[in-house]
Design brief:
By secondary structure, the protein is mainly alpha-helical. It has helices at about 1-45, 50-85, 95-105, 165-190, 190-195, 200-205, 210, 220. It folds into 2 domains: about 1-110, no CATH class; about 165-220, no CATH class.
Length: about 230
């Protein structure tokens, strides 16, 4: 597990280096653009409105770039968590990064990993891996609970359907109606049903039509694979 801890520490160092580099580049570019705008306004005599618009446009574009880089950083972090079997939702507290960093530096990184070599369970879970300890007798304090006592506990939790769910339900109903019409039309035109004097395929199955019209290789022929020899 020390290898995982070292991998995480290296990842943190790389991300911090990228953040520092982005801040420096942003500061340099902002200073250069602001200086250019001031020089243009002072020496060229440009319109303050145009200069201000250019400066605001630059700041807006810079914020979009930073947001894109932050999303890329979050994606890399999620990929690293998945690689190291870390689920932030299972960690108590809000400062997840500080806890992970502390665990990596103190040699306790395996305690924050979901999967482990000794049973593939979360560490320090009282309901998890028992390490070979068995107890067939139920605990005296764990009495049986009647399931009827929980009736109605989940009533009213579903709530109203969202607009998207209404659309899906409406589409399913339309598809069902169309499929039913197509099926009935196909049955009405089926020559085998007409010759047997029945209207539905289910009625044909109940007759002896299939026994009388048995044919070797019929399934292969239907599937386009040719008749069996």
């Amino acid at each position: 597990m020390q290898h995982d801890a070292a991998t995480y520490l290296q990842f943190i160092e790389d991300e911090e280096r990228l953040r520092v580099l982005r801040r420096r580049l942003g500061s340099i570019l902002t200073t250069a653009v602001a200086g250019s705008c001031v020089s243009w306004l002072a020496f060229v005599g440009g319109s303050p409105l145009i200069v201000g618009g250019c400066l605001l446009g630059y700041l807006f574009g810079l914020s979009l770039v930073f947001q894109s880089q932050n999303r890329a950083s979050w994606a890399r972090e999620e990929a690293m968590f998945e690689q190291l079997d870390i689920d932030p939702d299972l960690l108590d507290g809000n400062d997840v990064h500080r806890r992970l960093l502390l665990a990596a530096e103190t040699g306790k990184f395996n305690e924050v990993q979901v999967k482990k070599m000794t049973g593939s369970i979360r560490g320090q879970d009282e309901k998890g891996f028992t390490g070979g300890t068995y107890d067939d007798k139920p605990h005296a304090a764990h009495t049986r609970r009647d399931i009827t006592e929980s009736e109605g506990a989940y009533d009213g939790l579903e709530g109203d359907l969202r607009r998207s769910e209404h659309l899906v339900n409406e589409a399913n109903e339309r598809y069902t109606a169309v499929a039913e019409r197509q099926w009935k039309a196909a049955e009405a035109k089926d020559q085998d049903l007409i010759e047997a004097g029945v209207e539905r395929l289910g009625d044909l199955v109940r007759t002896d039509w299939f026994e009388k019209n048995a044919k070797d290789g019929a399934v292969d022929e239907l599937m386009g694979q040719g008749q069996k020899e």
